[in-house]
Amino acid sequence: MSTISIASAAEVFELLKPDLAAIELEFARQSGSPVAVVTDIANYLIAGGGKRIRPLLLLLSAKALNCESQARIRLGAVVEMLHTATLVHDDIIDEASTRRGRPSSNTTWGNAKCVLAGDWLYMQAFQTALGERNFRILDLLISLTQQMVEGELLQMEKLGHLINEEEYFDLIYRKTACLFRVSMQLGAVIANPSALEGERPFEETLGEYGRNLGLAFQIVDDVLDLTANDDVLGKPAASDLREGKATLAVIHALERGTGADREAIRMVLADRSFNRVTHADILEILYRHGSIAYAMDTACAYAEAARQSLAELPENEYKRALLWVPGFVTSRDR
Amino acid sequence: MSTISIASAAEVFELLKPDLAAIELEFARQSGSPVAVVTDIANYLIAGGGKRIRPLLLLLSAKALNCESQARIRLGAVVEMLHTATLVHDDIIDEASTRRGRPSSNTTWGNAKCVLAGDWLYMQAFQTALGERNFRILDLLISLTQQMVEGELLQMEKLGHLINEEEYFDLIYRKTACLFRVSMQLGAVIANPSALEGERPFEETLGEYGRNLGLAFQIVDDVLDLTANDDVLGKPAASDLREGKATLAVIHALERGTGADREAIRMVLADRSFNRVTHADILEILYRHGSIAYAMDTACAYAEAARQSLAELPENEYKRALLWVPGFVTSRDR
Questions:
Q1: Comparing C-alpha atoms, which of B202, B184, B190 is closest to residue B325?
Q2: Do the Cβ atoms of B13 and B20 come closer than 8 Å?
């Protein structure tokens, strides 16, 4: 085992290649439904790709604790399936027309089928998790899902309004960090499946890693939404602002900006369009106040907090991969 | 304890009055969410009433087996909450404008919030069920929910098309009888919570009762949809035909009718309206072929099968109530 730190995504993927392939198979197998349209929608979503970062975290967490149980494959598929279920319902809610550069599932199948396909994916994920016969796993997954759903509802209530940093962090915890956290915790649970509640080594600290990483990930996602162009994102640029969502850099500029700056931002959020104020106008305000840099610095601080959470973890190549992930997350450009 | 059979709904409700009141409280308590809109939608749905027949079945099943565990109250609320979650999502799918004589929840809050409120209710139901720490309960509830969701998707695929009796029975099993069955089974599970899989006395036979009763219930519902008027139903008459759904009497007439009869029915299903053929025309066809009587006779046969399922059950007032329910279900007019 090398003591040199991991330096590239290729190395991490190489380390997990057979497991990630097994998870793809399991995900496809689990998405097979007696009802053809469920299988169609699920296959469409599987083919759409996605970074598979949640299963990757679960695998690294389990393997860092020397767990090679088959549960890592099944639960890896479960966390990706839950993530997919939330995307299907979110696309209905956001009336999204594209997702990852392709038509969104609601555009292709209509809202009604997508409501049900999302429900089905939730149930299939729980069904698979239930097969592990471990109440802790179910506690984590069901309260996770409820928190994510509540987060989406809170997000809806806040659309078009100015929010503060505290509200923003609650929203991105529910949207992203909560599932990252649970993916990491599940790795610890299956490494010691029969441990008593609260007596599982590293469940808490690995969960903290996931939470911090998830916050960093979403902050970067929100910055990229503001700064990248359509082609890179596979969706219209600044779609958060077009949907009335204020994210970290925008909140920063609102707190520091001149009256005219605040008014410009308020207008875009209320209009949910760039009809009266352009995207370039907003970017100029954000750069002038150092708001983009502030958001990126905050993401980097969470990434560092994630690394710190691993201090007590035994040294091995999976720990090294976990130490590498936060830097990857904060330096990506899409 | 009287040996005289139960003769009225009032007697059954009197028998269960404190338990049904406790379930209402539990249902209201469980619907309290940190997110205001969830509580609003849930309270609206609770106030809308409904027959509470699923909790009633669960109570009768548990009590017929001498179970007085508090689980009967919690799970009584769970089955009603699952039922409510399916209604919220169904209203989105059917684009319903009314439900039980009031504006439907999607009309009031919009599709997006209702997708999420339905998701939340599912999770809350599972959360509560998970509190029982009994895998059999979770197995029943999660596979139930998946079957119901698949049923709705199958229903959508068949809208506007002619279906046969076998397809019809599969659909109404998933739509109604499956939850009736599980409500009865849960009563048996909590009466013997630690019994081994497959070794729980009466789980199978009480489940059969629920299945037969549920089929009878839905057949009658479908007949009432065809024959009752708007005021009695609290929704537009013949809304199944308006939505392109062929139910038992209609399937019977399609198999027995003249070419012109078949064509008239086909037209309504394809048009999803009575623009070319009137509701009265369809009723004339159904009565002429004895199709309404056929459907009611079928419902009565399932009701009788439900009663027969109870043959081995010990005699007590709850068994007598269970023997009374099927007749009530087939003789109701709304």
A1: B184
A2: yes
Q: Does residue A138 contact residue A129 with C-beta atoms inside 8 Å?
A: yes
Tell me, yes or no, whether A72 lies in a domain: yes
The answer to whether residue A312 sits within a structural domain is yes
Question: Per-residue pLDDT for A96 more than 90?
Answer: no
SS3 A172: helix
Q: pLDDT digit string (tens) for B249-271?
A: 999 999 999 999 999 999 999 99
- Which among B92, B139, B146 has the least Cβ separation from residue A124? B146
From B206, B231, B197, B230, select the one nearest B307 (Cα to Cα): B206
CATH of residue A323's domain is 1.10.600.10
Q: Which letter does DSSP use for residue A195 in this model? A: P
- Whether A116 and B93 have beta carbons less than 8 Å apart is answered as yes
Is residue A4 a part of any domain in this protein?
A: no
Residue B157 in contact with residue A112, Cβ under 8 Å?
Answer: no
Cβ atoms of A98 and A104 closer than 8 Å = yes
- What is the domain count for chain A? 1
**For residues B137 and B328, what is the distance between their CA atoms, to the nearest angstrom?**
28
Query: Cβ A142–B157 below 8 Å, yes or no?
Result: no
Q: Is the dihedral of CA A24, A30, A36, A42 positive or negative?
A: negative
Q: Nearest Cα to A32, choosing from A88, A77, A65? A: A77
Decide if A160 contacts A194 (C-beta within 8 A).
no
- Tens digit of each residue's pLDDT (9 = 90 or more) over B218-250: 999 999 999 987 766 666 788 999 999 999 999
Taking the Cβ of residue A34 and every Cβ of chain B, the question of whether any pair is shorter than 8 Å is answered with yes
Q: How far is the first Cα of chain A from the last one, in angstroms, to the nearest whole number?
A: 32
**DSSP annotation string for B160-174:** TS---HHHHHHHHII
Domain that holds residue B150: 9-331
Q: Which of residues 96-135 of A touch B (CB under 8 A)?
A: 111-113, 115-120, 122-124, 126-127, 130, 133, 135
In a domain, residue A152? The reply is: yes
Q: Output the CA–CA distances (angstroms, integers) from residue B166 to B142, B162, B163, B171, B327, in the order listed.
A: 24, 12, 8, 9, 24
- A150 contact B CB<8A: yes
DSSP letter at B290 equals: T
Contacts with B89 from chain A: Cβ below 8 Å: 115-116, 119
Q: What ipTM does the predicted assembly reach?
A: 0.92
